[in-house]
Write a structure and sequence with these properties.
This protein is mainly beta. The chain is about 10% helix and about 50% strand. The protein has one domain.
């Protein structure tokens, strides 16, 4: 069952409290969690080994979801404005997007959306709390290989995160 934002706003106003719709959205995702599907398969995220980092000088947000075997999904948002906001990135020159590193037999294979013919990707920051240092959101995109993996496109879908972030 979804959140009735209108009813929640009315209740909060009746109680004389300011309300943030993003705070309601953030509560729908459990704290310190992350999930994503890579190439149609569940990616085994280890939340304790994952991170979110906000660069205060550049406003870049970097979310790294790590698996136990060394594989990782990285969400980079260069245009973050420290508030909930949806980013549909179509500019192939933008660094914002989804990156994927596969590990097979101890060898890393890198996949980057900028190697794709259609580099569209979506990052939706649904909650940002500068007091509690938490950020949550969803993401999707396609990452493509290079070199011998040049023609290999890896869909990264159903990405979610609700993590504490550190600042640098």
């Amino acid at each position: 069952m979804g959140i009735n934002y209108f009813a929640a706003s009315l209740c909060a106003l009746a109680l004389g409290q300011a309300v943030s719709l993003s705070s309601f959205a953030q509560k729908t995702q459990p704290a310190n969690t992350a999930a994503v599907r890579v190439n149609g398969q569940v990616f085994a995220v280890v939340p304790a080994a994952s991170s979110a980092v906000l660069d205060r000088k550049t406003n870049e947000l970097l979310v790294t979801l790590n698996a136990a075997n060394g594989a990782r999904v990285v969400v980079r948002l260069a245009e973050f404005r420290r508030r909930p906001e949806r980013f549909v990135v179509t500019d192939p020159r933008s660094f914002s997007g989804v990156y994927y590193t596969a590990v097979t037999d101890g060898r890393a294979q890198y996949f980057d959306f900028r190697n794709c013919a259609n580099p569209n990707r979506m990052i939706d920051v649904i909650g940002f709390d500068s007091v509690r240092h938490t950020v949550s959101g969803t993401f999707s995109g396609t990452a493509c290989g290079s070199g011998s993996n040049r023609n290999r496109a890896i869909p990264v879908t159903s990405g979610t995160f609700n993590l504490h972030y550190s600042s640098r």
